TrEMBL record, chain A:
GO terms for cellular component: blood microparticle; haptoglobin-hemoglobin complex; hemoglobin complex. Belongs to the globin family. It comes from the Eukaryota. Keywords: Heme, Iron, Metal-binding, Oxygen transport, Transport. Gene3D superfamilies: Globins. CDD domains: Hb-alpha-like (cd08927). Residues 1-141 form the Globin domain. The gene is LOC116230224. GO terms for biological process: hydrogen peroxide catabolic process. GO terms for molecular function: haptoglobin binding; heme binding; iron ion binding; organic acid binding; oxygen binding; oxygen carrier activity; peroxidase activity. The keyword DNA damage does not apply. It holds the Pfam family Globin. This is Globin domain-containing protein.
TrEMBL record, chain B:
PROSITE patterns: GLOBIN. The gene is LOC116239519. This is Globin domain-containing protein. Residues 3-147 form the Globin domain. GO terms for cellular component: blood microparticle; haptoglobin-hemoglobin complex; hemoglobin complex. One of its GO terms (molecular function) is organic acid binding.
Length: 141, 147
């Protein structure tokens, strides 16, 4: 369960990411495709070469959705309802992959925040990304 | 047997060469106990684990973190023989310590994040790949003797 303190830490940390949405999003995706090659199977239609426009565009989309989640952290189910539907009925990405992307998002935050990615911020984000993943998977069956 | 490319070996050993085992080990274990508080179940005898500050400052956590990461170093030294390197430790974690192997995966992922925060851009995607592979192999080797 996200405490009030967790939410505060998430919002503060996210302010640092806000102006780098496209860059961080693209980096998280590149790290995911590199560290977990099986995730590429969901993107046969993408140009996955370095600096690809499609990766930059998609990274921006993913981080944009996370920004929305941060703003609506008290109401994730409702705020992410459309994305829930999309993932359940259309994309049908196996939920195990949400963990893999979450790990890579955290790596990107750690790379850019260094010491500021404190254990408390790390814990809050891990919980937040788990909550987001659960909402994305909630209509799967 | 796990196959390591020359590049993967180089990425692993070059990062390892710059790791402060005591600091990194302490940090990784502390983060495990903070981010996944249920892991504290294995450390009831460690004293005060009541808050992140208490955990980070706890000398037993620091010492144990150093011990765990030093053992990790054995994997780095013996990349071609990780299975055998951890055979006895695997038996220990099963028979005496009763640790669910899922915890090895959790600690591995935490270690990756600690390395990322220390090495920043030097912890490239290729580095992350090699290290995710390593932590997976270590976790697997530690679980191998479970029965």
């Amino acid at each position: 369960m996200l405490t009030a303190e967790d939410k505060k830490l998430i919002q503060q940390a996210w302010e640092k990411a806000a102006s780098h949405q496209e860059e961080f999003g693209a980096e998280a995706l590149v790290r995911m495709f590199t560290a977990y090659p099986q995730t590429k199977t969901y993107f046969p239609h993408f140009d996955l070469s370095p600096g690809s426009d499609q990766i930059r565009g998609h990274g921006k989309k993913v981080l944009g959705a996370l920004s929305n989640a941060v703003k609506n952290v008290d109401n994730l189910s409702q705020a992410m309802s459309e994305l829930s539907n999309l993932h359940a009925y259309n994309l049908r990405v196996d939920p195990v992959n949400f963990k893999l992307l979450s790990q890579c998002i955290q790596v990107v935050l750690a790379v850019h925040m260094g010491k500021d990615y404190t254990p408390e911020v790390h814990a809050a984000f891990d919980k937040f990304l788990s909550a987001v993943s659960a909402v994305l998977a909630e209509k799967y069956r | 047997m796990v196959h390591w490319s020359a590049e993967e070996k180089q990425l692993i050993t070059s990062i390892w060469g710059k790791v402060n085992v005591e600091e990194c080990g302490a940090e990784a274990l502390a983060r495990l106990l903070i981010v996944y508080p249920w892991t504290q179940r294995f450390f009831a005898s460690f004293g005060n684990l009541s808050s992140p500050t208490a955990i980070i400052g706890n000398p037993r956590v620091r010492a144990h973190g150093k011990k765990v990461l030093s053992s990790f170093g054995e994997a780095v030294k013996n990349l071609d023989n990780i299975k055998n390197t951890y055979a006895k430790l695997s038996e220990l974690h099963c028979d005496k310590l009763h640790v669910d192997p899922e915890n090895f995966r959790l600690l591995g992922d935490i270690l990756i994040i600690v390395l990322a925060s220390h090495f920043a851009r030097d912890f490239t995607p290729a580095c992350q790949f090699a290290w995710q592979k390593l932590v997976n192999v270590v976790a697997h080797a530690l679980a191998r003797k479970y029965h």
